[in-house]
Amino acid sequence: MKNLIGEALPRLEDPVLLRGEGRYTDDVNEPNQAYACMVRSSHAHGVIRGIDIQEAKTMPGVLAIYTAQDLAAYGPHKCMLDFKQRDGSPMKRPVRKSLASDKVRFVGDPVACVIAETYLQAKDAAEAVELDIEPLPAVALASDAAKPGAPQLYDDVPGNVQLDFLWGDPAKVADGFSKAAHVTKLSLRNTRVVVAAMEPRAGLCKFDGDRWTLTVPGQGVWAQKLQLADILGVTPDKVRVLTWNVGGSFGMKGPIYPEYVCLAHGARALGRPVKWTDERSGSFLSDHHGRDHEITGELALDKDGKFLALRMTGYGNVGAYLSNVAPQPPSMNLVRNACGVYRIPLFEVSTKVCFTNTSPVSAYRGAGRPEANMYIERLIDEAAREMGIDRFELRRRNHVTPAEIPFKNRADMTVDSGDFGTVFEKALQAGDVKNFPRRREEAKKRGRLRGLGVDSYMEVTAPPNKEMGGIEFDGDKHITFITGTLDYGQGHASPMAQVLASRLGVPFESISLQQNDSDRLVFGAGTGGSRTAMMSGGAAVQAAELVIKKGKELAGEFLETSPSDIEFADGKFRVAGTDRSISLLDLAVKKPKALDVSHVTEVIPSAFPNGCHVCEVEIDPETGEVEVVRYSSVNDFGTILNPLMVEGQLHGGVVQGLGQVFMESARYNEDAQLVTGSFMDYALPRSPDFPAPITWQSHPVPATTNPLGAKGCGEAGCAGALTSVMNAVVDALSNVGITRFDMPATPERVWQAIHSKRS
Asked: CB within 8 A of 54, min separation 6: which ones?
C-alpha cells in the first residue's frame, strides 16, 4: 500500500470553494422562513426599567417580539470548565440567560428578538423597540474592575473577580527568588482582539413538532447539539445540528449563542423556520473577543543565567458574561504553556480573572498559548540584556535536552518528545542570524532601525479527549469517514483521506469526509486546540484496523478458508501463499454494510508542538512605520500528514500574530463603549502589509502519545509570531535606547516612543 502520509496533496474542498459553490449558513433557506433581528443595548451597564414593544409589534410584517420573559423557561448558557479558587471554593458562575432581564452589562447585550416576514421588516421593528435603561457606571479594564470601589457587575461576585487563581507554592517560589543573583520583571499587555471571521455568525432553525434542526456555523456539531438541548431543557435526541462550510472561527463560533436560542423558541412558537444573519457591526459587539490580559512576569536567575523560578501575576478579562471556556486562557493555559521548552525549577501563576462591561472574551487562536509563550520569551530577552548575556546563549543554557525527555515540568505536564536545542540552532541558521549585525549596520546607513527577534516556543494542544472514527462503505466503492471534529477552514478532507488511503490501500479519491451532521455522530469533541490530526487522525487509524479485522473474517468466508490464513496488503485480502484474493472495496460491495465501523477512541493525550521563529523588522524613525523584512521558522509538528496544509496553517497563524502586534487592538473608552467598532477603526492585516516571504522548515520528532505521532499545528504560527515580532520590534527600538515597549506597535505609538526618548 502506498503511504500518502506526508504527501503535499491539494485540498479536496478548494475547487468547490474557488468556484463560489460553497454552502455557508446564510446560503441555506427553508420554505416559508421568517427572519430575526436582535435588539441590543447601547449602554455598557444599566438597569432595565422597561422594554416598550407596542409600536414595533404593529409594524408591517412583524410576527413576534420576544423578551427575557418569553424565554424564562429555558436554562442558562454554561461555562464548560470548572476551576477552583485559590481558597478551594468553586469559581463564580453567575447565571446568563439568552436575553437580559434585570441589567445590561455590555454594549451589544441582547435584550429582545424581533421576528418578521423579511429581514428589513425585522430590522425596522427592532429599531422601533424602546429601551428604558438607567445607566450605571461601567468598567472596561480587568485591573480596574478589581479595584476597590469599581462598578460591580454582579451582586454575588465581589470585586468582579470570577476566578482568583493560583498555581504553585508561593512560599517556595519566593524562596527561589530570594536566592537569585538577578531578577527580571516585566509588565506586559496582551491586547484585546476582535475575531472578525470572514463569515458573520448566522443561524436557521426549524421545528417539526417534536424536534429542532439548527443550521449554524461552528466548530463541532455534537457539542452544539448538547449545549442547545441543555438550554432548551430537552433530551439531546430532540436536537439536530447541521454545519456546512464555515468562513473562519478561530475559537469564536464554538458555543451556542443567545441568538440561536431565540431562533429555536421562534421556530416552535410560530411553527415556521426562523433565520438570522448578523451584520458586521453586530459581529464587532456580539461575537466573543480574544486575548486581553495584563500580566507581570518575573524571572529569577543565578549568576550563570540558569533559571531558578518563574512567577506570573496579573489579570485576565472575560468580559460581561462567562463564555464556554472564558477562564482558561489567563489561568490553566497560562500554566500549561509558560514553562515552554525550558527547565524551570519553581513556578507560580497567580491571576485574577475579572468581569468587565465589555463583550465576552473566549478562545481565540491559541487561547492562552501564544500569550504564555510571549511572556516567558519577552522576559528572557530582557534578562539577557540586563545581565549582559547573549540572548541566544541564555536560551541554550536553559533548554530541556533530549536526554531529559520524557520531562515532567512544573505544570505537571509530561513532555513526551522533542529536540528543542536542535530546532533552535536550525532556526538561527535558517534566519542567517550570524550575519544580522551586517544587515543592521546597512539599515542604519539608510536611516532605519533594524531589529531581530526569536521565539523558542512550545505549546500544549487541547486537553485529552476521545474522538469518533466511523467508516461507511457505499455500494459504488466509495468510503465515508465520519468524525466529530469540524473543518472550519483548515482543510480536513485531504489529510483524513490520506490516512485512510494509506491504511486501507484504497484510492485517495474514493474517500469523503462527514463531520457536519450531529445525527451521523455518536460522539464528537469538535475542532479546537490544534487537536484534529491527533484525535480524528488517531480515530481513523483505529477504525481502519477494525475494518481490516472485520474484513479478514468476511474474506475467510468468501475465500473458503480460515480468517487466520488471510493476509491484508495493498488493499486486498489474500490467502497466504496463494494468488486467491479479493479487494477490500469488492468485498464491501458483496457484503453491504458488513464492513462498516462506528468507533470511539479511548482518551488520547495532549501533544507538544514546538519550534523557533526568527523575525527581522525595520523601523522608519520619522514615521514609526514598522516593516517585517525577514521571517523564518523551524517547527516540530511531529508526523506531518500534509505539508501543504501545514504550511498554510502556519502562514495564517503567523499573519494573525503579526496583525495583533501591529494593528489589531479593540479599545473601549471610559464609558466602556467600543471605539473600534468597525473596519474604519479596527485594521486587519492584508497581503501588502507583509511582503517578506514566510519560510518554514520541519524538524519532526513524532509524538509517542497518539497513533500517528502527530502534534498539531493550527495555532503554532500565532505562538511563534506574537513573540518573535515583538522581540524584533523592541530590539530595533533598542538602537535608540528603548528597551521596554508593549503592543500594539502601531506607527503612531512607535513614533511617539522614539520621539519621547529623543526629547
From this structure: none
Backbone angles phi, psi at 620, to 5 degrees: -90, 110
Q: The sheet that has 581-583: what strands, in order across it?
A: 566-569, 572-575, 581-583
- pLDDT score of 171 more than 70: yes
Is the CB of residue 662 less than 8 Å from the CB of residue 650?
A: no
pLDDT value of residue 406: 97
Residue 283: HSE in the Cβ half-sphere, 13 Å Cα cutoff: 21
Got the DSSP string for 470-510?
A: EEEE-TTS-EEEE-S---SSS--HHHHHHHHHHHH---GGG
Q: Between vectors from CA 251 to CA 615 and to CA 348, what angle results, nearest 5°?
A: 70
Q: Which H/E stretch holds residue 441?
A: helix 436-445
Q: Is 601 exposed, middle or buried (0-12, 13-18, 19+ CB in 10 A)?
A: buried
Respond yes or no on whether the N-terminal peptide bond of residue 685 is cis (omega within 30° of 0).
Answer: no
**Backbone dihedral angles phi then psi of residue 46, each to the nearest 5 degrees:** 180, 160
Q: What count of other Cβ atoms lies within 10 Å of the Cβ of residue 736? A: 14
pLDDT digits (tens, 9 = 90+) for 606-662: 999 999 999 999 999 999 999 999 999 999 999 999 999 999 999 999 999 999 999
Angle, to 10 degrees, between the axis of helix 391-398 and the axis of helix 369-387? 120
CB 496 within 8 A of CB 540: yes
Q: So what's the pLDDT on residue 49?
A: 98
**DSSP β-bridge partners for residue 307:** 301
Instruction: Give the CA count within 13 Å in the CB-facing half-sphere of 507.
Output: 6
Mean pLDDT of 708-723: 95
Q: What is the mean pLDDT of the chain?
A: 97
Neighbouring C-beta atoms of residue 373, cutoff 10 Å = 28
Q: Which residues pair with 408 in a beta bridge?
A: 414
Three-state SS for 626?
A: strand
Residue in the block written with cell 407596542: 54
d(CA 230, CA 214): 14
Q: Where are the alpha helices (DSSP H) in 583-671?
A: 584-590, 643-662
Q: Residue for cell digits 489474500?
A: 574
Angle between helices 532-558 and 493-504 (to 10 degrees): 30
- Cell readout for 498 is 490520506
Strand partners, 616: 452, 630
Cβ atoms of residues 427 and 634 within 8 Å: yes
Number of C-beta neighbours around residue 430 at 10 A = 17
CB-based burial, 212-232: b 16+ in 10 Å, e otherwise: bbbbbbbbbbbbbbbbbbbbb
Segment 186-195 mean pLDDT: 97
Taking the alpha carbons at both ends of the chain, their separation in whole angstroms is 70
- One-letter amino acid identity for 759? S
Q: Is 6 exposed, middle or buried (0-12, 13-18, 19+ CB in 10 A)?
A: middle
pLDDT digits (tens, 9 = 90+) for 513-542: 999 999 999 999 999 999 999 999 999 999
Distance CA 419, CA 531 (A): 21
Q: What is the pLDDT of residue 546?
A: 98
In eight-state DSSP terms, residue 70 is G
